[in-house]
Amino acid sequence: MIRWTACVVVSAALLVGVVAAEAQAARATYVKCGTLIDGRSEQARKNITMLIEGEKIKEVGGAASVGEVIDLSRETCLPGLIDTHTHILLQGDITATDYDTQLLKQSPEYRTILATVNARRALEYGFTTIRDVETEGAGYADVDVKKAINNGVIPGPRMQVATRALDVTGAYPLLGYAPNVPVPHGVQLVDGAEEGRKAVREQISYGADWIKVYSDRSYFVRPDGVLDDIPTFTLDELRAIVDEAHRERHKVASHAMALNGVHNSVEAGVDTIEHGNYIADEDLKTMAARGTWYVPTIFVGEYVAQGRANEGAPVWLKMLQIHEDTFRRALKAGVKIAFGTDAGGFDWKVNPAKEFGYMVKWGMAPAQAIRAATTSASELLGMQDKVGTIEPGKYADIVAVPGDPLADITVLEKVDFVMKGGVVYRRP
Q1: In sequence order, what E strands does 222-261 have?
Q2: Distance separating alpha carbons of residues 141 and 122, to the nearest angstrom
Q3: How far apart are CA 113 and CA 106, in angstroms?
Q4: What letter would DSSP give residue 261?
Q5: Given a cut of 70, is residue 175 above it in pLDDT?
Q6: Which of 26, 199, 250, 356 could form a disulfide with 245 if both were Cys (CB 3.0 to 4.6 A apart)?
Q7: Radius of gyration of the chain measured on its C-alpha atoms
Q8: For residue 16, pLDDT beyond 60
Q9: Rounded (10°) CA dihedral 143, 145, 150, 152
Q10: DSSP secondary structure of 343-369
Q11: Segments in 125-258 forming alpha helices (H)
């Protein structure tokens, strides 16, 4: 009787194992790619099949067996795209009035609802990971959107968030209202090194992955063609913020568009320069030596320039020419460049992948531009062990386009297949 019972137990265990194995095989998904740009190889590969098990890539280059087969044999497959500069809580602000309307007439709750729509848009455009660099007056709403995505409540990209951003008194909208009229601001106002440290601690405690600072304002072009500015924080203030963030193992992104803002940011040891319309040659050398990232956000400059020029700020049109020269000098200097768009600074109904065309127009090879939005961007985020390439062990974040982006980079504006973590969100 004991032997019989033991046999039954063993048989049951074996049966459970077989059922589990069959269930696992049934969950296997094969993706057949006509062309694969995997983010690692120098050359694209033809007719490659990938095995996806659960949310990870199990194998690249085998043959399809038992399981679902997704046929992308007429498509080019790439790693999920990464946008390292977005604002899901903004809907575009070509003019100052657009920005004021959002902060004064839309509640944070309503803006958060719109943000969930923007997160879905980002995913369907092919961006399976984003870094959202501040909520522009909506508090810590980005933390909750990230949480809702991670918990499967809403669809969206993997997110790193910067919550409220930091700036000094009198330097950031909303501005121009009567002194006796209290208005919200798009940032957390801090003055002095100790206030900066306290704000860093507060933001991290509420879920910030990054600390964002605004390092300059009030741009003007000097007679020698240099884009000058008024710096916001003192160097001591910036150093305190960076030191506190780094002490707590967090990175700092600096909105720095011109001469002094960039220089102070580099001297203070920030991790990324955002926008960087003008960067002096010496600062480019320092950035290259230290591995400081440059996130140029080209398209948004053209998008907003005309509107702001019509408001009496023609400097924005001149800034485009200066930006192109800076981008080319940064490439030549060997500065690390990551893809970022400032989506939200322009309407989310516009595909952020337009950025690729500008990067190539300004001197990048198509392969470089693709790496900027995959392998390089994943390194900037510290996620290179999880995303950015197509290889076994990484998340199954895969997109596909009906064309060859190495021949025509603009086909990345036509992503028609999106898989994130093994789940398909868009099909041809």
Answers
A1: 227-231, 251-256
A2: 17
A3: 11
A4: H
A5: yes
A6: 250
A7: 24
A8: no
A9: 150
A10: BTTB-TTS-TTHHHHHHHHTT--HHHH
A11: 141-150, 193-205, 235-247
CA–CA gap between residue 141 and residue 15 (Å, rounded): 48
Strands across the sheet containing 417-420: 56-60, 45-53, 29-36, 68-79, 398-401, 417-420, 423-426
330-376, pLDDT tens digit by residue? 999 999 999 999 999 999 999 999 999 999 999 999 999 999 999 99
C-alpha distance across the termini of the chain, in Å:
60
Q: What percent of the chain has pLDDT over 90?
A: 86
Q: Which of 391, 393, 361 is nearest to 77 (CA)?
A: 391
pTM of the model: 0.92
- Tokens 């790693």 correspond to what residue? 79
Angle at alpha carbon of residue 360, lines to 377 and 49, rounded to 5°: 60
Tokens 């700020």 sit at which residue?
Answer: 313
**pLDDT of residue 21 exceeding 50:** no
Pairing label, strands 227-231, 45-53: unpaired
- Which band of pLDDT confidence, cut at 50, 70 and 90, is reported for residue 312? low
Domains plus CATH for the chain?
27-79+390-426 (2.30.40.10), 81-352 (3.20.20.140)
The tokens describing 361, both together, are 């127009």
The b-or-e profile of 341-360 (16+ CB within 10 A means b, else e) is bbbbbbebebbbbbbbbbbb
Does residue 374 contact residue 391 with C-beta atoms inside 8 Å?
A: no
Residue 273 one-letter amino acid: I
Quote the CA–CA distance of 40 and 48 in Å, as a whole number: 14
CA distances from 96 to 80, 294, 311, 324, 404 (A): 34, 26, 9, 25, 39
pLDDT at 8 over 70: no
Q: Can you name the residues that pair with 273 across neighbouring β-strands?
A: 254, 294
The sign of the torsion formed by the CA atoms of 321, 364, 327, 315 equals positive
What pairs with residue 30 in β-bridges?
51, 69
Q: In this structure, are residues 206 and 143 in contact, taking their beta carbons and an 8 Å threshold? A: yes
